[in-house]
Amino acid sequence: MHEKASNFSPSALPVLIGSLPHRDHVEATDLVFSYTPEIPLWVQLPCYPEERLLSQFATGLPGLRRQGDALFFETSGTAFEGELLAFYEQYLSVSEGGAPLEGSIFAFTPETGKGFAVFLEKALALDPPPVALKGQITGPFTMLTGLKDASGRILHFHPELRDAVIKALAMKARYQVEAMRSVADTAIIFLDEPGISGFGTSSFVGIPREEVVEELTEVMDAVHQAGGLAGIHVCANTDWSLVLSTPIDILSFDAYGFFDRIVLFRNELLRFLEKGKVIAWGIVPTMNASDILAVDARGLVDRWRGYVRELGADPELATRQALITPSCGTGLLSLELCTRVLLLTREVSDLIRKDVL
To answer: Which of 96, 178, 196, 254 has its CA 20 to 30 A from that of 301?
Structure first.
């Protein structure tokens, strides 16, 4: 087992999923640190096109072209061949040659990394210091099935770009871990994988399961090699046995909406906990305003306890190896609803920790 994972027992501390609805990075970061100072994260503000799911981590990829807010890849002609060669030269220089990630194509740009820069500055000033810092990156399956070349073919079916995307994500994840570990000893990276809910459907016929596991593993290995913890966040249902067959340290899922689906993998989840790994319970709803307004912290705690009983996990173990989160990001909510989600996440965590620890 990854050594860091065996030492990380968050005991139901709260943590967030990346996106917020704000326009100001300092204001959004201050809100995150006020509710989750133990494990804060850097904010993604999707009101800016360069901070959206696919665009934020696409910079530096060979053949990337923009048309308005849309991205596509031009893979014909000598220009692409030159860009591909330059990409691999830089990849080898940082992965094998010891060149720094800072200043490379794998670092955030001033446009894509505003939230990260504000986050690191504020984390340095935390007193007491944080238990951990959390970052996130779009997962390889979501990137490879969400991005297309000029002919409309998804990148998963373009061998050269498929490899480049995976390697770029691995280095971009490593870059975050190295930067966060200069501030805190424990760094967490969630691979945000909404697209993986479509694995096995007719939309992605021809994508072998073993290839998906390989993609995820390559990015997670980069996180582990940099000394970080790797998680996967899926905000819908998926083939959970596939996700659990990867070397993840933290499983993050929408417990409010999909516990009845994931509990079908009870034995795998119990083994996951017994290995000392962590479940991030997305117990606070984010999908519907009516749900957000209707729930309260005590009711959500009771709901979580019921889920633990149904899973058949030892309550002490389940609490020790738990994170409490919203079910997904809050980037599409109003500022008022976003703040309520953060408050509920804090309150649920506090109640669980008070009742059990």
So the answer is: 196
